[in-house]
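Trying the structure run again after the queue cleared.
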Amino acid sequence: MTFLYFLAFFVMAAGMLILFQVSPLQLISDFSQIFSRRKVKMKKQIELSINPKKLRGIRLIIKDARDVLRITNRSDRFNTLCMLSLILFVIGALLAGSMSNLIIMPVLAVGFALLPFLYVLFSASKFKKDLNGELETALSIITTAYMRSENFILAVQENLDYLNSPVKEMFEKFLTQACMINADIPQLLEEMKDGIDNSVFQEWCEAMILCQNDRNLKSTLTPIVGKLSDMRIVAGELDYLMYEPMKEIITMAVLLVANIPLIRSQSVDWYHTLMYSVPGQITLTISALVLFLSLTAVIRNTRPIEYKR
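Done. Tokens:
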């Protein structure tokens, strides 16, 4: 009966939004603007400007996911991601209602709502590995061409067709600016340095800037590009170890969920005690909370190997 109440509530809410032609994302945005309009004292504003408050928890996960979408040129998918998160939030609440467990409802609702953002963060690891491979190829061939011609613009032009996204778009932008807008190559390299969040690429750009003033320093470019090769070799050797925690958490999640029907098949009384008694519902809530927290921690810590300057 509780499940039917919740289902009727969400259907009624969806019907009202459709009737008044209100977008759920716009509704959430309006509410967030109302709460963000509260006045902040000048002293508090100064303190926040000196020591910015670090985001934590759910807000940090959403911010990181949004940054990943921006870096991968998929910012237009953020609204779709929010809509999917809202749908999963409702599914989590309905699932808890079907279990007649109000204690676990906030855990399932919030946990299901975070799944799309966690998936984006997990996919960022693969994107960074692919990006490191593209950077290794691009910087290697451009460096080789530059050491031969000592002309950076010519080196980029010769090898532009061999580059792939997103590195190609960045060098295309550099060529457009260098040939039509601004011929100051060191300044353009300085601007391009911040286009990709990769310490080796940034170091390569800084070395290339120095080479524009002293071409004898071009010998420093090859060892920098070699760092990307080292990263690829080490990542290949440690790939299994890096993703082993993810395999373990997925295995534990499957075992945890599979235990519920297993208990029912062994003893109906134990099953009713687990599902419908207060101690059993609290146990399920704690298990679900630990599962979502562990999944979040594993995804946030599963990152490809990078050089740190």
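The chain has 13 helices and no strands. Worth checking whether this holds up in the mutant runs.
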